[in-house]
Design goal:
- This protein is mainly α and 73 residues long.
- The chain has helices at residues 2-27, 30-69.
- 90% of the residues lie in helices and 0% in strands.
- The radius of gyration is 18 Å and the shape is elongated.
- The chain crosses the membrane at residues 7-27, 39-59.
- Keywords: Membrane, Transmembrane, Transmembrane helix.
């Protein structure tokens, strides 16, 4: 389950990055695109990393809680 969540988050994040770069290519002059592109790229990768970690934590959290609670009596 954890790998599926990470694959989905990174897939969506990289698609958003590709669409963002594709739209910026047509909206900005080349000099501005080249100046802004690295910041957009690293910003989106950073956001994708944070969302990936939070989503994996959210998936693991209930399972970890159940395992630590022990058997019901």
């Amino acid at each position: 389950m954890r790998m599926r969540v990470q694959a989905a988050v990174w897939g969506v994040g990289l698609l958003v990055e590709a669409v963002g770069h594709g739209s910026l290519v047509f909206l900005l002059p080349p000099a501005q695109f080249l100046a802004i592109s690295p910041f957009v790229q690293w910003g989106l990768i950073g956001v994708t990393f944070v969302v990936s970690r939070v989503s994996v934590w959210a998936v693991q959290s209930p399972r970890t809680f159940r395992n630590q609670a022990g058997p019901r009596t």
